[in-house]
Every structure is written in structure tokens, then in C-alpha cells.
Amino acid sequence: MSTDVRSETMPRRLPRNLPGPTGIGGSLLVLLVVGWLLTNLAKTPGDFFQILLFGLSLGAVYALVALGYTLVYGILELINFAHGDLFMFGGTVSAVFILEVFQLGSQERWYVLWPSVAACVVIAMAVCGVLNALIEMVAYRPLRNAPRLAPLITAVGMSFILQDVVLGWRGPNYITVPSVLPRSDVFNVGSVEYRWDELIVLLVTVPLLLALVYLVQRTKQGKAMRATAQDREAAAMMGINVNRTISFTFLVAGALAGAGGLIYVLWQTQVRFDSGFRLGLISFTAAVLGGIGNLPGAVLGATVIGLIQAFNEGLSWSAPGGDWTQSIVFSILILILVFRPEGLLGEKTPEGQ
Asked: What are phi and psi of 299, to 5 degrees?
């Protein structure tokens, strides 16, 4: 008798091959978004493809910053909230060198422009890489065995410190640099125009991303990074210098942020002390969306976020508009954390492992 009562009162589980309420809602949302995109494609195909190309370039910039979040989280399980401001610092350093050291103009000859840009890339990556490694050594390493809240608060504090350093150094106004990248069309098909400044963003970003994948997957230092991320104590027992490996990870993450800062300044032609706050949060959302700690996931998440922002701000038919971009992006962050915290390419792990 008691068995019958329990069988009637216990909730029944849905069969494994049927979607639950969350799956149905997510599927409906995806169908609505796809329908909206197809409608815009049918109405204004030229604008659709041009915005698509812009979104890919924007996603590439986000990817450089998102990879920094992913690298640090993968090895320390630390959300480095100062990373977006490190990106801003790299942009500021790049702007200063463009304006005051190389003195580049809008009509600069190619044999002056490209060596100067290459030098700025190296300088921005070196400055931000070393700075990030120093931040890890001074601010995070002493708290490595502290409760997780302590380094998280420290990261927020470092974010404000970097903002205040640039605020005191360059003031509250935007630093504007000349439009040195060529703005002519790479190709023009009908009403679809793809400019050189958008292509150059990809030409700089994609090799850096491939170099990072090669570093992590193929090199001895990359194997040390993966071993340390998996089990620090076991890695130390195998002879890996854990402190040096973690510092190297911060160095690489900072170098990517510096490269992203330079690309952003060359593309958008301006930067300010608070430019990294919003972009850093969006890039963090991209890392979570793809699966934080997963390198391909960070790139995928950044591409998706870049396309979402471009479509929302660029498409004309029934788009919410640019004022809603941040709300949409952070709504995605909340939904991912609630319904799929491992992200698109992340893997579920048992609790406590």
C-alpha cells in the first residue's frame, strides 16, 4: 500500500529523449532569433552580409580578451576582473606611442606605417604581459591559498588601480589617434563593402590565436600549463615549477590583452581610462558562453557575442537597437550561468571535482 502511495506522489521524470521545459524554451528562443535573421537577410541581404563581416572582426577583438580570462581561470580558477582594464592599458600605451613616439598620420606611407604598427604590437604585448605577470606576483600569489573571495576582491581592486593610473596619466578625456589603417575596400560585391581596416583586425588576430593554440597544445611550456591547470600538486611532484608556469600564463594573457588594445585603438581610433570596463565584461561573457577554461570555446563565444552585437546594432528590421546591447549580452550571461554553466563547449564535471 505504501508503495502505491509513493509511486503516485513522487514526480515523474521526463524521458531522456524528450526535451524538458528549459530545452523547449531555449529551442523556441533559437527559432525566433533564426527567424529574425532570415527575415533581415531576405529584406536587406547587402546590409546583412556587411554587418556579418563587421561582427566577425568585432568578435576577433573580443576573442583576444576572452582568451585571457580563460587562460587565467583554467590554471587558477580565478576570474581576473582587472583583465579588461589591462586591455585598456595596452590601448593607452599604443596610443601614446602612435602619437608621441612614431607620430603617425592619417596618410602615412606604407614603409613607415607597417614597421611602426609592428613595433607597437610588440611594445603593447610586452608591456601588458610583464605588467600582468607582476600583478600576479604581487596581488594574487600571496592569496593563492586564501578563500576564493579574497583574490576576487583583489582583482576588482586591481581593476580600479589600473583605471586610476591611466586617469592620472592621461586624464579623463578620450585619447584620439589618427585613422592610420587604410579604409579602402578589399572587395565590393553589390552593396556589400569590406574594408581593409576590418580585414587587418582579422589578419592580426587569427595568427595570434593560432600561435596560442600551438603554444598550449604543442610546446613543453604549454604541457606544463595544462598539467598545472589539471592538478598543481601533482605537477609540482613531477618537477614542474608551478609558480613560474602560472606567471608565464599571466604573461601570455597580458600579451593578448595588449595586442587587443592596440587593434582596438587602430580600429576605433580612440581609448579612455574606462574603455576596458565594458569591453572586459562583454569578453568575460564570451568566455563563459563558450565554456570558461576552454580555448576554442572562448573564440566561439567571442564570435557569437560579436555577431549578436553587430546584428542588434546594425540590422534595421525590428532590432531592439544599440541601447539594448548590454542588456542582451548580460541576459545571455545570466541564462548561461543558470541553465548551462559549463558553456557551449565546456564539459560537465561532478560536484567537488
From this structure: -65, -45
Say whether pLDDT at 3 is over 60. no
Q: Which tens digits make up the pLDDT trace of 133-182? A: 999 999 999 998 888 889 999 999 999 999 999 999 999 999 999 988 88
Long-range Cβ contacts of 323-327 (<8 Å, 24+ apart) = 326/278, 326/282
The three three-digit cell numbers of residue 138, written as one number: 604581487
Q: Which residues pair with 192 in a beta bridge?
A: 189
Q: What angle do CA 313, 58, 35 make, to 5 degrees?
A: 45
3-class DSSP assignment, residue 321: coil
In which element (H, E) is residue 225 found?
Answer: helix 220-230
Grid coordinates of 343: 558553456
Q: Tell me whether strands 185-189 and 192-195 are parallel, antiparallel or unpaired.
A: antiparallel
Rounded to an integer, what distance in angstroms lies between the CA atom of residue 36 and that of residue 66? Answer: 27
pTM of the model as a whole: 0.85
**3-state SS assignment for residue 176:** strand
